[in-house]
Amino acid sequence: MYKILVPLFALIATSALAGDLDKRQVLTITESQRLHVIEEMGALLSGTQNILAALSMSDMAAVNQYASSLGMNMTIKTEDYLKGVLPKEFMQLGISIHQDFDKIAADALAIKDRKHTLQQISESMSKCVACHATYQIRTVKTSLKPASKSNHHEH
C-alpha cells in the first residue's frame, strides 16, 4: 500500500506546485469561448496529422486539400466571435498560422516538394509551441468576472 500512496501523493503535490509555477499569461474567457478555441486547436492538430499522413504517401493533392481547410477561410467564424476577448497578440499568432496553411496548400501544388512542405509545417508548429508556452486559458462564469485561482485551466 505504501508503494502506491507515496507516488500518488508525489503526483498530487507536483501537480499543485506546477499550477502555482505556471507563469504563462492567463486568458480569462467563458466556457463557451474556451470550447470554441479548443475546437479550433483540435481541428488544426487533426488537420496537421492528415497533412503528415498525406505527405507520407506523397499525395500532394491531399496535402493541398487538408491545408486549404486550415487556412484563412477557417478563421471567419472565430475572428468575429473572439475579437476583443482575446489579446491582439494571441489573435495575430492564430491568424499567422492560418496564413501558413494557405501557403502550404498553394506550395503543395506549385512546388510539390515534400521536404519543403515538412519545413513549412515545422515552422508553423513552432508557433503552436510558442503559443502554448505563452498562454493558458482559465474559464469564468458567463458574467466574465476574473477567474480565481481555483478555476480549472487548460491550454
Kindly list the characteristics that best describe this protein.
155 residues; mainly alpha; three-stranded mixed sheet; 70% helix; disordered C terminus
Structural write-up:
Helices cover 70% and strands 9% of the residues. It is mainly α and 155 residues long. It has a domain at 32-127. It has a 3-stranded mixed beta sheet. Helix 2 runs antiparallel to helix 3 (60-69), helix 3 (60-69) packs antiparallel against helix 5 and helix 5 packs antiparallel against helix 6 (114-134). It is elongated. Residues 145-155 have low confidence and may be disordered.
Summarize the topology.
Layout: H1 2-21, E1 25-30, H2 31-56, H3 60-69, H4 75-82, H5 88-110, H6 114-134, E2 135-140, E3 153-154
Parallel strand pairs: 1-2
Antiparallel strand pairs: 2-3
Helix pairs in contact: 2-3, 3-5, 5-6
